Amino acid sequence: MHNVVRVAPGPSAAVPLDATPKNIFDLFFSGEMVDIILRFTNKYANECFVAHNARNGTELQWSLVDQTELEALFGLLLYAGIRYF
Question: Given its phi and psi angles, is residue 5 left (phi above 0), alpha (psi -120 to 50 degrees) or beta?
């Protein structure tokens, strides 16, 4: 296991006054970081499904998560963290 983050943590630039939530999100999560998380999320989930199918004689298949879905999940988690904690 190694550290996949190759840049300093935190925002990568100043936040413009007309920034959207997506603009702010992109300051914290680079495209490379999202791609790595996405690739390994799908890889791990697929391995879990294969193992489950082998144990149970089923033919379930993992539906690949795309970048939009992953970013939506991150957004919900960030919102919940801000809203409820």
Answer: beta
